Amino acid sequence: MTRPAEPASEYGATCYRHSGRGTNVRCQNSGKPICSECMRDTPVGYRCPDCAPTSKPIFDDSMVMTKVMLGICAAVFVVQVVLGLSHGQSNAILSATGDAAYTNPIYLHGALWAPGIDQDHEYWRIITSGFLHAGLIHIAFNSYFIWILGQLIEAAVGKLRFALLYLTSMIGGAAGALALSSVNTPTIGASGAAFGLLGAGIVMARLRRNEQLTNQLVITAVINFVITISLSGSISVGGHLGGFATGLVCGWIAYGPWQRQRWVAPVAYVGLAVVLFAVAVFIAHDKVQAFNDAQTVVGQVRTP
């Protein structure tokens, strides 16, 4: 696997073992600047190989679950494009949404849509919507975001907890999207899960007392939320907020008071995912019911 390029640090620091790699992260013991390859995960924060020779690198070259999640997104996107093209959607690669998308079966039955969840009992939409994307740019941006965060988080929490954190954040993002979106507005994308990873990373770095990494991730979050709010007409604000909030909770669960009981986090993630799933179903029902009640009132007012 090719390691992603590490740009020069704005502070001018370079890894003490790799002079060509800029970094803002330092060993919590010696203060030496360290790149992602040299970061060692210890109970008291990130340390250099000299201070923690027996600890594993924070950069996990396997990144199995990160690759699995991105692979599912890519495979679903290929199917989405093929089905779109076969149904006459000529621009399916660049834009998988719009009126033409409603002829695409995978979008029609997979997007997050409150009436489909409530009236047709298509509960799978809460999950499948997180693997659908609106076009090539959409999936490329989300995939890059997840890839960068996956390098940090999967190695720190392990494959199982990473997968559960990812899926729980996805469900939290779906609940947020349903809460803040119009009842008839379909929502798709892995950004809820991506923002969940970002939120978890901030809390984990903070609990590890890694101020430099915490600051980097907070700045990333601020920039992305500014973009989210600026483009709120085309981006699901609720999905991003829901995923991020879920990630904050998941990060605390992973590195909070029970971090040494490794079974706690998986159990808690499953429980949280079930609760958020139920919340999403309830929100979908409430939104549809409110919409139907409003339509009834309008009909009564218009009736002579």
Protein architecture, described:
The protein has 304 residues and is an all-alpha fold. The chain folds into 2 domains: 7-59, no CATH class; 64-300, Rhomboid-like (Rhomboid-like fold). It is 58% helix and 2% strand. The protein has helices at residues 64-86, 105-108, 114-118, 125-128, 136-157, 159-180, 191-207, 211-230, 237-255, 264-302; strands spanning 40-42, 45-47. It has a two-stranded antiparallel sheet with strand order 1-2. The chain is globular.
List the main descriptive attributes of the protein structure presented here.
Rhomboid-like fold, 10 helices, 304 residues, 2 domains, single chain, two-stranded antiparallel ribbon, disordered N terminus, mainly alpha
Briefly note the CATH topology name of the largest domain: Rhomboid-like fold
- Alpha carbon gap, first and last residue: 71 Å
Number of strands: 2
Supply the helix-strand structural class: mainly alpha
Tally the helices: what do you get? Answer: 10
Report the C-alpha radius of gyration, rounded.
21 Å
| Overall shape | globular
Please specify the SSE layout and strand pairing.
Blueprint lengths: L39 E3 L2 E3 L16 H23 L18 H4 L5 H5 L6 H4 L7 H22 L1 H22 L10 H17 L3 H20 L6 H19 L8 H39 L2
